[in-house]
């Protein structure tokens, strides 16, 4: 069984972009994707030059087709563990018991959004409960908007959302605002509702009607922005011993290289603010760095073969075989 040059774990924008670049560089590449993209609930994505308004699923379908067109492989499955193989490569262990050999790894497993525990909030995620004003603000511009606050940085977040509407309400628990924050909200005509949110009010046509407070009062709103807590999906990287910062985010250099030799990471798993277009760019940068690292390895191997009197081989002559 031949080893793949690179196994990419995660088939989102970062993973597919990397696989495309590597496949075009004549590397043997396998993308293992669990099929659970973070933006699956969203009907459209925005801010991606030439793809603005496209459905996220359509972007991924196109990306998979392009990768396959250059000989890259896509495998549906879940990676349960990554294990060094003792010869500068890795075993990729799958949930169905299979294992795949890789010279290098790129982990693009993304993150998950932890939302406030407000009844009805999660059900409306990516519909009229939103998190990124740059992704969705234009689509709800000039409407009655709200921001669920009370967390660090939420007031600053509300000030950004204010760019898309003149009618914005900031919901926050009592006694959480500083004088400076309260003054800033007042200065830009951002309404403040202090209290506990009981639930979201929804009309008969399944549209958000407003925010119901625990006193029964309903504040009319057409859409809510919620700054979620971003939690990176770093279990695989942590298992390899990759260094993380105090907040749990794996540390990488500008190309996505981790502290473990042979392992890169890109996209939301290391950058919570990366939009789709940013993640795709990070995947491309990681791919270029990965190929350069593999070239260095190819040179070392070729020199070793030469020293042992073995014939030179073309890097494009080896084709991947089905994993067992």
TrEMBL record:
Catalytic activity, as annotated: [thioredoxin]-dithiol + NADP(+) = [thioredoxin]-disulfide + NADPH + H(+)
A Pfam family it matches: Pyr_redox_2
Region (Disordered): 304-324
Keyword Secreted: no
GO terms for MF: thioredoxin-disulfide reductase (NADPH) activity
Annotated InterPro entries: FAD/NAD-binding_dom, Ferredoxin-NADP_redctase_2
Biased composition (Polar residues): 314-324
Cross-referenced PANTHER family: THIOREDOXIN REDUCTASE 1-RELATED-RELATED (PTHR48105)
Protein name, UniProt field: NAD(P)/FAD-dependent oxidoreductase
């Amino acid at each position: 069984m031949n080893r793949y040059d690179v196994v990419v774990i995660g088939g989102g924008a970062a993973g597919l972009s990397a696989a495309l670049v590597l496949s075009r560089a004549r590397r043997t590449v396998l993308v293992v994707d669990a099929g659970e993209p973070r933006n699956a609930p969203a009907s459209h994505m925005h801010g991606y030059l030439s793809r603005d308004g496209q459905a996220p699923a359509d972007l991924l379908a196109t990306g998979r087709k392009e990768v396959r067109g250059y000989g890259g492989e896509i495998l549906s499955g879940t990676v349960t563990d990554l294990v060094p193989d003792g010869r500068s490569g890795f075993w990729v262990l799958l949930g169905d018991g299979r294992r795949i050999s890789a010279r290098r790894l790129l982990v693009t497993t993304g993150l998950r959004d932890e939302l406030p525990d407000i009844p009805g909030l999660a059900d409306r995620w990516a519909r009229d409960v939103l998190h990124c004003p740059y992704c969705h603000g234009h689509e709800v511009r000039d409407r009655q908007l709200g921001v669920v606050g009370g967390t660090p940085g939420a007031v600053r977040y509300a000030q950004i959302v204010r760019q898309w509407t003149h009618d914005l309400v900031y919901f926050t628990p009592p006694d959480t605002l500083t004088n400076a924050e309260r003054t800033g909200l007042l200065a830009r005509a951002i309404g403040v509702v202090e209290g506990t949110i009981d639930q979201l009010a929804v009309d008969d046509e399944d549209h958000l009607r407003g925010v119901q407070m625990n006193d029964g009062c309903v504040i009319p709103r057409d859409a809510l922005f919620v700054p979620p807590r971003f939690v990176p999906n770093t279990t695989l990287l942590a298992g390899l011993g990759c260094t993380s910062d105090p907040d749990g985010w794996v540390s990488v250099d500008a190309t996505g290289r981790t502290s473990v030799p042979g392992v890169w990471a890109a996209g939301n798993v290391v950058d919570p603010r990366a939009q789709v277009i940013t993640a795709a760019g990070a995947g491309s940068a990681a791919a270029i760095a990965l190929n350069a690292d593999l070239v260095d390895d190819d040179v070392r191997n070729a020199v070793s073969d030469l020293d042992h009197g073995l014939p030179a081989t073309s890097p494009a002559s080896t084709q991947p075989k089905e994993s067992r």
